[in-house]
Amino acid sequence: MKPPCEVAIKDLLPLIRALVAKDLKAKGLSQAKIAEMVGVTQPAVSGYLKQQIDKNEPLYSEEVVALSKWLASGLASGNLSYSEAVKGICTLCTTLKCQGSVCTLHKLRFPSLQAEGCDICIQLYSKGLPTVDKRYVALSNLKAALNLIHASKEFSEVIPEVLVNIVEATPNAKSVKDVAGIPGRISKVEGMPRAFMPPEFGASEHLASVLLAAMRVNPDVRAAINIAYNRFVRGAFTKLGFSVYIFDRRETPTNANMAQTRVIEEVLNLGKRGEPLPEVFVDAGGYWIEPSAYIFGSNAVEVAQKAIKVAEEVARLKSK
Question: How far apart are CA 179 and CA 170, in angstroms?
Answer without folding.
Answer: 6
